[in-house]
Amino acid sequence: MDIDVSRFNQLFFDECTEHLAEMERIFLGINPSDPDREELNALFRAAHSIKGGAGIFGFPDMVSVTHTIETLLDRVRHDEIALTSEMLNLFLQAGDVITMQLAGHRDGTMVDEQAIQSVCGELGAISANSLPALQPPRVDPVGRTGDSREAAAGSTYRIVFTPPPNLYTRMVRMEPIFADLATMGDFTLTARFAPHPEFPVYDPTRCLAHWEMILTTSCSAAEVVEIFMFVADEEEISIEQLPPVAMTAGRSSALAVDSPPVSHGKEAATTGATSGGLRGYDHATTHSTYGRRREEHVETTSIRVGVAKVDQLINQMGELVITQSMLAQSAKQLDPVQFENFHRSLSLLERTTRDLQESVMSIRMVPISFIFNRFQRLVHDLADSLGKRVELKLEGETTELDKGLIEQLADPLTHLVRNSLDHGIESPELRVTAGKPAVGVITLRASQQGGRIVVEVTDDGAGLNRERILDKAAQNGVPTSDSMSDEEVWQLIFTSGFSTADQVTNLSGRGVGMDVVQRNVTAMGGRVILTSTQGRGSRVFISLPLTLAILDGLLVRVGSETFIVPLNSIIESLQPRTAALNEVAPGQSTVHVRGNYLPLIRLGELFAIPEAVQRPEDAIVMLIDADGEQLALLVDELLGQHQVVIKSLETNYRKVAGTAGATILGDGQVALILDAVELVRLWRSQ
Amino acid sequence: MRMDGQTNANSGGEAQEYLTFTLGREEYAMDILKVQEIRGYDSVTRIANSPGFMKGVINLRGVIVPIIDLRIKFNLEQLLYNEFTVVIIINILGRVIGMVVDGVSDVVTLSPEQIKAAPDFGAGTNAEYITGIGTVNKQMLILVDINRLIGSDDLQLMEPTDSQLDLAA
Lengths: 686, 169
Fold this sequence. Notes:
Helix content of chain A is 41%, strand content 22%. By secondary structure, chain A is α+β, with helices and mostly antiparallel strands. Chain B is built from 3 helices and 11 strands.
């Protein structure tokens, strides 16, 4: 039966990517002089899984590279070769090669055959060079398997594979397995059939056969069993090493009794059903213990779900929240005594909805380590090529962020880390001269602060050079003046086409970078803040909304219009006394709150709402925080707190100045969601 | 809907169906395939600092949809918002947009020979959105190029850059 496995390819690609990431993580973290055994095993498992998968899905090129890695790893694992840092670098390159091959198969991108050859060649060379010196010839009893490599060529094994009846329905194909075995040495295959029942009881999808194989090979029993790793559980495989004499006997008897050895792929058709085939097959004898397969079968604790499905769930959740609040609003008109039960159910519904909403939202949340970990490799490679010594510190990797945001964050963060490496961190000599440790430190830190996630990239490098930025800006025709504050000067590097790098390197200096960072972050509803001290380093803060979908807000009324003010930007609300209000200039007032004079933004005026309350004393002043700056916002009335689903205005319309989007209220009306920072910007521009 | 506006089976050229609507005293027609639905005028949420013809946004089954008043755009007097005021919800350029008109009249089929080129009114009028003049039962229909109208910069329905992109596509 021929099954088209190509539809499972995506699954393989996903898994393979995960295994590769895992391998890379371990390679980067491992200590060559004292490698952790568990980590070596994990590496081996990952390599082996890739190999197995690649074999099943028919990517022989990947099999060959992973096989080389696996072979070398296996020998390291068994202390036959000492791990060196060169070897680790080579492993990393090999990982890249596999990634490239993977991309080639998945996206049809170009594959650099030369790179593959050279990596395999080098790995092979290491393996071959150390072979005689480090491999003591030893013969282990097969019963223990798993850790022994048979040095003497020509051990003979009898392998019996008794598959479960559902073998075929599990989409397992035996032909590639037999083909693999055949490449390992002298291989004889015999299929034996249990007597099958008569029609109509006979079910052709059930596997009634078992296979008996004789293999003479230089490989260890462990390696032989590994071939079966993806098709068989340990109790389905029995392997025994035949003594040289028994071998010939066993083999000849097999040949004598049954039809001649058949080529793989035809065994089921050509061999006759012989119940006598069960002879010599004994569950109790010399079982090879294969715990590994077991471990991998441990209860799966996660499932793969398409992002589209999750998004749909979140959308529907949003609708449910709206419906629930509509219901709550209608219920207010009902007599609480008469409809006591109804009200109780309703409050239960509200609580459940809220819990459900949290759970649904959490599905999309991914720890930020998801992207942070990529930077270990980036920094490792870049520092090498730049001749700098850099340590990357990660903090708060467990901070969770919406998956959509995480993906969009990868590019800006890469830019920032590269910038820090290229422009920030100085060469070791310069650092020592400046009295700093030779090894520079780049820190990636993530933390949740209220309703926002703050991601920080800090380096202890040279910091920004004020004069150079001003010079460069002047060259680019950007208006500058010497009286600009540092903050304003740093803002200049966010203008497009700006680069102070002395020369264009392949890392940075092309003038694309900081403006892209700012644009990407702004598109996510975030903001970038940069601080820097010359000679001490610089620090970039990226502040992002926790999630894109739902927000806690305060409903406010101005005239006949309703707005949502995000709760996380509100400090407090108060009714101002006349004494606290001062008119600084015509139409420009300040509110005096606890020693601070805060500029007053009249929302009614800003949004041209005719019926808005004119006298601040009759209205409400909300103190808002716009990225660290405090301002007072004048609204007519506070209507209450609501959790709202953010809807984009841009889907069908365009961005509206001063807002972060819109939402649908309990009565079905649309209300605009205000954004403190945007609001202040709009107010300043008017 | 009635199809009595349909004229004799035309020969040659692709006949197309148009939705006709009234703005003031004139009959206009637009490609019916762009129409998603027709609904009454409901209260809208005003968008501050937007042009006068931009009435605001509504909630159309969970989607935020902007509403423009074509009567204001086409400088018509006597704006009434009553039970006969109709919003045509159109779906073009990947967007859903509502247009307020005085009324929707009919669906007609026009063959190319029934459509005359629009006279040249010169620049500065709304003439650039008019693709031609059609005649059905001796009545004049002004054919509106809805894509061009909605995508135009002076309607400010889209960010400047992506309206150009959309039109180029």
